[in-house]
Each structure stands twice: as structure tokens, then as C-alpha cells.
Amino acid sequence: MPTRTGRPPRISKTDILAAAHRVIGSEGTQALTMRRLAREVGTTPMALYHHVRDKDELLLMLLDDYAAGVPRPEPPAGAAPGERVVAAAVAMRGALMGVPWIIEVLRADDLMSVRALWYPEEIIDASVLAGLTPEEAVDVYRIIWHYTAGEITARAAAARRREDDRPTHRSEVFENLDAARLPRLAALGAQWEELTARDTYDKGIRALVRGLLPPPAA
Amino acid sequence: MPTRTGRPPRISKTDILAAAHRVIGSEGTQALTMRRLAREVGTTPMALYHHVRDKDELLLMLLDDYAAGVPRPEPPAGAAPGERVVAAAVAMRGALMGVPWIIEVLRADDLMSVRALWYPEEIIDASVLAGLTPEEAVDVYRIIWHYTAGEITARAAAARRREDDRPTHRSEVFENLDAARLPRLAALGAQWEELTARDTYDKGIRALVRGLLPPPAA
DNA sequence: GAGACTTTTTATACATGTATAGAAAGTAGC
DNA sequence: GCTACTTTCTATACATGTATAAAAAGTCTC
Fold this sequence. Notes:
The structure is a homodimer. The first copy, chain A, is about 60% helix and about 0% strand. The first copy, chain A, is mostly helical. Chain A has one domain: Tetracycline Repressor, domain 2 (Orthogonal Bundle). The first copy, chain A, is flat and about 70 Å long. The first copy, chain A, binds a DNA duplex through helix 3.
């Protein structure tokens, strides 16, 4: 009989998460401070810390909620394993791309959130079907994860820089280029800004899949 | 004649950077706060902000100093372009791996630091020699950069988690696994921790190179 | 050399995440 | 009902990055 002892809780993890969603939804991600959240829940800031280890964990749980909303697509019937890996990776990245505060969370954990585990499952499964051992398939997933996390982080950082419209730091770099030692970069020059705005995620994923999975039997 | 007007500066960017190096060297990276740094330089915290936009920029400059210390290796004479790309990427990652606060800086910029531009130069040059257009070569560099940044971030996050010895959050995940929906992950189970500790950077880089560069003429 | 102007430095203040200590509010044993 | 114990919540405090306003310390014009 689980009769709880101690002072009965006034708030729950669920309350906190719901309030966090409300705040983010109505006032944006930057409004989500522990104090603001406490007000929304109707308690004090420190009370939150009895239900949540720290803000990172809170964000991780929000990410979990969010990722759970993205449904697992039906695996395309006759698709080659490589295509299944690509599809899963693209879906994973698509889910994360929409979360603006992702950049703060990615520092905190390297595995996808609890309810979004179908991404690794799918990637690992397809890799095994392609002929890899489970161990190798895990490597494939981790490599893809690293690539994806890096791409998203860079994307988010670039977006933030655009907001603050910092002078990009790169223009400065390209002005003081030593053309003798760095001819390729010097030749690219002004093009750089434009070239680095391109979305190369798919290209990278396909290259990884080509390089990691055995070629499909002809 | 550039006779400077206005109040003469008491401190310089150089002073600040030198002090920052001293602090980090003797007391570790966590001791580097703006107040501590100001004390070390002999000024007030806010005075630093006349020489440095914010702490991120300061860290970026420290990274620059650090990366400049890593010498550009002589390009191996007869090496295939692909091998040159791999070597440059591994060197780049090696240089970053040693910087413990890297994780805070990577959020701030996506291009390597000013004095470490030989990494992209080398990768782009080798890619062009392998037969790609300069535009494609830039893609190659960016894809490699994303992968590298992601790997380093994950590595740093894992290291920090080990310090705080948080219960890894993953054990919990694997305990509540729905084995019916996620058979591969369930089968891996306890192995996961061990498998994800492996260093797969090289494997990923080689796969990227295989997938991105045209096969060498036989 | 007196005021205008510019650059650098200082003082003060604020928002934020979170540590710490203790108060509040319940259950269990007697 | 009283004491012990447990859990949750509150109050207070601190370190941190940094905004803002004003003071200080020069040069330039006349």
C-alpha cells in the first residue's frame, strides 16, 4: 500500500511541463526562466527544483514531449536499407530543427529523447539488414547522430547570429587572408558567405550512408 | 599621423588574453569569470567590455591562440587527396579535443578560428585536386566541420556528465524500453553504454571522404 | 588655457540559475 | 494527541554575465 508520507505536493512534473509549454507558446522561448515558470505554476522558483534536477533536464523533457509528437512514419515497403537510414536521419533532423532552444539541450545529452527512440531503432535496424553487425550498426547511428547534432548546432548558431546581426566575424576573417598560404580560401572570398548558407545536410547523410553501409547486392 | 584622442587605455586586448591564459592555466577553466579576469588584469569587470564584445568572443580569441599553436603539418608528398582530407580533419579534431571549454564556443561560431584556417584550406584544396569543383569542395568542408563539431560536443558533454556522475539518463531509458516496438535497442541493452564509449571519429571521417570524393582514378 | 569632444574606466544595478537552511504539512508509532 | 520522521515548499543569498549612466583623462580648436 503506497500511502505517501510527508507533506503532500502542491505541484507535479506534469504541471511544470504544461506551464512551460504555455509560456513558450505564448511568449517565446526566451521567456522561459525558472522565476517566470514558478509564477505560472503558482509557486516559488526553488520549489521547481524538487521536481526537476535543473533547467537542462526541464528542457530535455520538453524536447521529449515535442519529439513524441512527431509520429514514426511507416517504413517504406520496398525501400533499400540505405534509403531507410537516410529517411530516418532526415526525419530526426527535421524534428530537431523546429526546436529553437535545441542548442542549449544538445550540450546536455547525446542520445535522443526517450519517446523519440524510433530514430536510432530505425537506423540500426536498417543497417543490420544492410549486412552490418549490431555493433557496427550502433557506430553508424552514433556517427549520424554526431553529424546531425553538429549541423543543427551550427544552423541554430547561425540563426542567432543573424538575429543579433553581428558582423559575422567571417567577413573580418576573409579580409585579412594570407592569399599566399591560403589560396583556395582567398579565391573563394566573397562567395563564402553564400556557399555556407546552403543546406548540405542531405548531401552529408547520403555520403555517410554510402561510406558506411556495404553496397547493396546488385 | 594617428594621434589617438580620448582617455588613454590602461589595458589592452593582449593584456586580457594573457591574463585569461594565466587564470586558466593555474586555476582551470571554471575560474575564468569576468570578475576574476578583471582582478587579474587590475581593473573592473566592465572595463573588459571595451576590449571584448562578450565572453564568447573572449573564448573565441583564446581558441584562436590555442589553435595557432598547433602547427600546420607538411602535406604528405604522395598522399592521395582523400588521405589528405582525412589527415586534416583528424588534426582539426585533435586540436579542438584538447580545449575543455570548447563546448561553450562552438555554439557561437561555425567557422574555425582565424589562425587555424589551414584546416579548411587543406580540405578544400585536396577535394579540388580529387576532382570536385570549388563549390563542392566547400560543401565537403562544411559537412566535415559539422560532423567534427558534433562529435566534439558530444564528447565534451559526456565527459562533463561523467564528472557530475549523473545517472546517465540512458540507463533509465533502456530500462523502460518497449521491446516490441524497439527490438534492436532492446537487444543491445546493457551493451549500449560500452558501445557508445568507443571512438568512432575516424570511421565517420573515412566514410564521409569515401562518400563525398570521387573514387581515385585506378 | 577654456571649453568641446572622444575614448576608456568605474559604479551601480539587474536578471538569471541555483545552493542552503529551515519552515510547513502531512503520516506512523505510541 | 504527542513525538519522530519524511517530503515538499519557502526565504534568503550568491555568483555570474552584462546593461546603463556617469565620471575620468586625455586631445583639439580657438
